[in-house]
Amino acid sequence: MVNWAIVVGINNYHRSQDLNYAKRDAEAMRDWFVKEAKFERVYLFTEDSPPISFRNDKPILTQPTYLNLRTFLRVQFEKRIDKKEKDENKREKTLLQSGDNLWFFFAGHGIRAFDGDYLMLLDSDPDDIERSAISVNYVTERLRSSGAGNVILFLDACRNEGGRNSLGIGDEKHQGVVTFYSCYPSQKSYEIKELEHGSFTKALLEGLRIQGENNCATVERLERYLQQRVPEINQKYRQPTQFPYVKPEPGKKLYLILLPKFANFQDIITLKNNAFKAEIEGDLELAEQLWTQLVLSFSDSEALAELKRIWIKQLSSVSVSAPVTQATGSRSHSELDDRTDWFEFEVVQVNIKGEIEKREKQKARFFTEDLGNGVTLDMVYIPGGTFTMGSPESEERYEGYDGREEPQHQVTIKPFFMGKYPITQVQWKAVASLPQVNRELNPDPSRFKGENLPVERVSWYDAVEFCDRLSQKAKREYRLPGEAEWEYACRAGTTTPFHFGQTITADLANYDGNYTYGQGPKGIDREKTTPVGSFNVANAFGLFDMHGNVWEWCADHWHDNYGDKPNNITIWLSSDGNELRLLRGGSWLGLPAYCRSASRNSLDAGYSADGLGFRVVCAAAWTQ
Fold this sequence. Notes:
The protein is of the alpha+beta class. It has 13 helices and 26 strands. It has a six-stranded mixed sheet, with helices on both faces. It has a five-stranded antiparallel sheet with strand order 16-17-18-21-26, with helices on both faces. A four-stranded mixed sheet has the order 24-23-22-25. The two termini are about 25 Å apart.
């Protein structure tokens, strides 16, 4: 993956009001690109920047005049003919590739004219905009012709008369480009004398440097930071408010990862979901760009398989004359796509008080297993990955906590399918009617009756028998999840105590709402199980009811903590006659702290109660 940047800053205009700190802003951005982000090439355009050399051509001057900048964009990013190709089969080659990044930063004046946005250059004439200023459309067209899959614009181009008055830019959409604007078209963008920077660029540099949990690794988080920080700076230095904003085209690029080294697992999952959605909607170019970033930035094996599949689709759409062989280890279209469908679900994020701050529609793959007599089981695709298992010391647990969730450790999980919901009573009854494998099953064991209520009062041995009978019918292996698989699936890329945030509320899960977690509110104690999926909220993988309702049996034997756990083991078994088995997720009659993603419990494998249920997993051959 290659990273390039073009940086322009203009203080001294020939025919417009001079600025004070645009050049300084550009130089600060240049330093960040070179010294901190380690970009391979950075081209600086200011009043005294050095010329740029091109192969055997004459150097291009970098004083940001109309001729100099336009010439650079034309010459640098023109498509070239691959001389190695035969004359009758000449092929144009781009300078950059689909997985590469090209950033463009501009600090100076901007203006809206002739139904377009224009950047005012050193020699631009306000009375002759069309022939002396450079249009943003031309800039984006040239940058996209470079071949870079990710083109990012930062336009602090609303500066005038010492303040930085908006001249109206920001109304245009630039397809295939993510554009950050320093303020709304109707606002002014201000320079701060005390900082010797524009407030937008000052906040931008701060945001790009944030590390840890609150980093600005994605477009969405950087926009959120700028929208908070820029008004703060303006208020502190007694300037009117300005609101930065971003225009990602298409909208899925809102979750593009700008800074891979700071990205978290949820960022990767979101990017994968958007790549899948782009393919569904027929935008193979965007799908290719997103999968390519995952391959180059994170060496993601699943992304590589998907990328190969996208290439096959692209080739088949161009020509069907030559057969294409599926690469070894990748999943073929017929095995994966033809066996799964998509479903849509809602994911929410709460603040520390349990108030919903964000709702988002997402999609996931699933297949349906026929259990007979019109009863089905939905199995959701869980992509493979690596996560941190266990809880940190800073996480609130419960009175009497004994260190069972420590130490935190990295675990790598292969792809698998998991039940969308805990097994219901109607599903239990259907499988209990199948031929016995090892033990008898009570077809109606539950205390609380209802077809779509989770089955309860089932022991670990009962759950294993259920899996054995289902495997025999389906002709593929079903089993209980390993404890690591369960936590990985529950977190779905999050690191918070619950997959929807720092706390839990009785509006999102079924537990004893008389008790609270963190700063969350008290709620209802339903004193019984609830129908699966009734809260209409899933995690980012598309799984429902992972917190509360019924404890869920896992395949593992109980171990007091993770101190002696072997590396990257999916199911941790003992050979010492241990009859204790793992339970995860909490239940309707439990404390909210027991419902956390990292919470662990155990009971004798033969024990059953009205708070104990389970869900199943399937590692079908076509997930590998």
